[in-house]
Amino acid sequence: MSKRTPVARTEQDDGDGPSEHPDGETADRSEESGIETGAEAVVAGLESAGVEYLFGVTGGAIMPVYDALYEHEELTHITMAHEQGAAHAADAYGIVSGRPGVCMATSGPGATNLVTGIADANMDSDPLVALTGQVPTDFVGNDAFQETDTIGVTQPVTKYNIFADDEATVGNDIGTAWALANEGRQGPTLVDLPKDITQAETDQRPEEPSTPDTYDPPATAEAVMVEAGAETLAGAERPLVLAGGGVIKGEATEELATVAREFDIPVVTTMPGTGAFPQTDPLSQGIAGMHGTGYANMAISNCDVMLAVGTRFDDRLTGDIETFAPDAEILHIDIDPAEISKNVEADYPLVGDAGIVLEQLLRAMPGRPAAEAWREQCRTWQEEYPLDYEAPTDEPLKPQYIVERFDEATPADTIVAAGVGQHQMWAWQYWTFTEPRTWVSSHGLGTMGYAVPAAIGAKLAAPDREVVAFDGDGSFLMTAQELTVAAREGLDITIVVLNNEAVGMVRQWQDGFYGGRHMASEYPWVPQFDMVAEAFGAKGLRAESYDDLEETIQEAREYDGPAVIDAAIDPTEDVYPMVPSGGDNARFALNADQLEGL
Amino acid sequence: MSHGELPGPGPGERTHPDGRRNSQGIRIDPEAEAERSAERAVLSALVTHEPGVLAEISGLFSRRQFNIESLTVGPTVDGSLARMTIVIEEPRPGIDQAKKQLEKRIPVISVRELDGSAVQRELVIVKVNGDNPDQVNAITDMYDGQTLDAGPRTVTVEITGDQQKIDDAVDAYRQFGIRELVRTGYAALARGEAPTAQVSEPNQAPTEAQVATEEVTDD
């Protein structure tokens, strides 16, 4: 059989026997580069980008790339149970490490299963590279077996995607995708790899990863604008810093803290910005948005100058745009010019790298805002609107209590992953975050099922740190099969299912806005998750009362491998404060009655 | 009592600012300013000439709900580049946002909004009933058009011009009964020395390809 597989080869042939290697004729030519095929160029491209892990699921069209990974030392492939899990694990790896995570799947269903994870990364600007197999180029467009127009399907949810149509440059395509995912505003990229291209002979060693010449993300903001903004900020009576995910992505947490502390400005963070500023700092004014703290939302509503850094003013943050910080002149620092004045008008657009622009601003500040009264007001709001709950020991477990006990038991650099729903909000509200890259969550897309694969990716990115994932029963059921990966790889992670036998956030909305009609939101048939965990090879534990909760937490943490705690929480517990969708941030509800009144 | 409830003054008891923004996120005098109305803008974009770029750009406009009137695309003198002319109708913030979203796509090299002085042309081909060929010819002459095809039953003509001229001409042909028509959408370049969207930044020396493009299009 010749090396170049005939394009007419049927899919059934794919699993048969080991892949052929080139004969002597081509071996001479490729001796120097060590590359013999397009697939090997792909792997070399990954190597030259310094990729450690590939999260993937194999299949027909991607088999040449998998074959090139056989007996490969530098790259470790983590076989996931489902492609969505591969994308989320790679996404979390990217969040924690700061460098693009890489996921891989075959054509057709493999590629479409990745899409949720790619879209998630796109919404949160997470660095991610997806590699997908594709039917041979001669078959593209013919509705071949397992053919999907992956480029077309993923175009709206990627920063860039590449159809690799030349074996001589396919290795460079990998580098381009990696560099584009990593540089500027981070995001997901994809390379679609037709099988004839990866099987074709080539000895072309890829170049170092680099972005196209025309790609030139801005670094420094316009000096005139920085000076004007600085003057306004220095003259503020009610100044506020709003720190978004871009502060963490742009490695600008130190610069942000310097600006805040130097000029005594309270700091609110968005959900993706969690960890951008230590919540233990006296200037921390908490987390903002729909389920943010009352004191953060009061500060946002009432500030007169806002320094917003690396945020896209998502509707879950702003609520009704007409009442969002309505008195505030806004200095908006962002590396993406398209975020400036997209949702909220920036009075001072400061386009550039967050750290660099914050330093520019620091130098340009003519003085310190006279804002003692405002800081006092912010402290008063903190006292007026504390996050609080009661935990009577004769009642079912309160989820907030579980989150707090875990926080106390674990080191400060512990990584917290979460699914999507009420449990996510409790984890976000009741954990005290002090370091960047410790909060790993699906923000913009709100992808249920994120937690388990995210914990896997996070642990591989930071093997020396503790990883705790909070999940809900609904969320856990969507990706629980990835436990098999955690068990196989011996990953020491703890997953806490805050189990209220419901899609709790939907049920809360049904109570608040749909007259209590619980359509499809209650799961009285949920399995026992501790037993599910054991079946997958993880440690399964139950938490049902306050008596043995701390013991259970210890047991899970001490277990050397994945442990799952099925925690039966109070099913009547809801998440407050809450700004109803499209509501006024200053009119957050503290209970169900207030929600109805809004 | 609802579980999860929190202490603190209720919504009505809180300090609240007086200011307001409009739906475009712009701070306004709550009593004065109305929202900005839509205007028409012509955008020229230089893009890499590769498969999928048209789909990417048209997809961008549709998924972000930008209202486009026309979009034309064609190669330039540099075989690796294509030029798109996009006519968009949006309030000013929407036009600015569309420009920035365009610029953000990797295959888009540069984008420029053309002002009213730009050279703008659209072409229409109209097929009318051929019962009164002399009258059809008279109208075609009036609009500096050309007859492309004339037969016993139909006359097909082309008119080139700006939007107003084409609208007027089409109106004039209606009396004969228009069987079919096709409009190309706008093609436009900046007038005189002013640059249209180009490869290099305006403060840099133009590339060879770009000079070649301009020489040809100036003819």
Q: Strand tally of chain B, please?
A: 11
> Could you say how many structural domains of chain B there are in total?
2
CATH superfamily of the largest domain in chain A: Thiamin diphosphate (ThDP)-binding fold, Pyr/PP domains
Number of helices of chain A: 24
CATH architecture of the largest domain in chain A: 3-Layer(aba) Sandwich
Topology, number of strands of chain A: 18
Largest interface: A-B, 57 and 41 residues
* CATH C-level of the largest domain in chain B: Alpha Beta
Strand percent estimate of chain A: 5-15%
CATH topology of the largest domain in chain A: Rossmann fold
Number of individual domains of chain A: 3
CATH architecture of the largest domain in chain B: 2-Layer Sandwich
Rg of chain A from C-alpha positions? Answer: 25 Å
Mean model confidence by pLDDT of chain B:
88
Largest sheet of chain A: 6 strands, parallel
First-last Cα distance of chain A: 72 Å
CATH topology of the largest domain in chain B: Alpha-Beta Plaits
